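Quick one: co-fold with protoporphyrin IX containing FE.
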Amino acid sequence: MLTESSTSTGTPFSTLVRTATEQQHSEAEHSTFMRDMLGGQLGVQAFYRYTGQLWFVYEALEKHSAALASDPVAGPFVRPELDRLASLEADLAYLGGANWREDLVPLPATAAYAERIEECAQQWPAGYVVHHYTRYLGDLSGGQVIRGTAEKLWDLPKKGDGVRFYVFEAISNPAAFKREYRESLDRLPIEGAELERVLDEARRAFTLNTDLFQALGAEFVTSN
Ligand code: HEM
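Sure, here it is.
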């Protein structure tokens, strides 16, 4: 019988996934690329390039929304108020001008990340959920720090073009939204070996992000 993920270990799944990725969260947050970009050492070109890479990640996350919306595991997480692709496109058009689509080339690390999301979206809804968690809950949290810094560093319109990706217009109370999101995580019917597999996938999701930062860091070291 399927039980709530929390019942097999006594710890809610939302806590398990946060704890499982805590160390990696810190590594991602303090990666050289993030530090240099948010420290103002890299310039707006790096932010533009980073935003372009995110386009591929969110395209993969949002491409299968229609099919996943009716999935018993992934369905509760597929919420139109989270959709980021249109905001990313507005930001890219602002930051890159008319040719932004031609500039949009995935780094190998980005392509690998997007490919893994797609695999999960098509074959493993619980795996998809932890990819979803890693990005959207992060955007609602630390993403707000990135937005504030980007606005100041590059004189971008506050909550406007360039940083729309970080502005969730349709979510009036992010703290409440995150609380409900965690409650949905805690209702996931995951236990035993599947729980371990899902936590591994969450760690993999963070690794894929760190790999991407590393690739971006390598690209911008030379232009610095
Ligand atoms: C400069 C970079 C970053 C900063 C400053 C930052 C900061 C934060 C902060 C302060 C929280 C806690 C919010 C709360 O308690 O509600 C948070 C949560 C989170 N962050 Fe980050 N973060 C950064 C990068 C990232 C990255 C790169 C990822 C993964 C792609 C990520 C994923 C998450 C997730 C999933 C959560 C939710 C944790 C949970 O409560 O379950 N963050 N972040």
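If it helps, Residues 1-7 have pLDDT under 50 and may be disordered.
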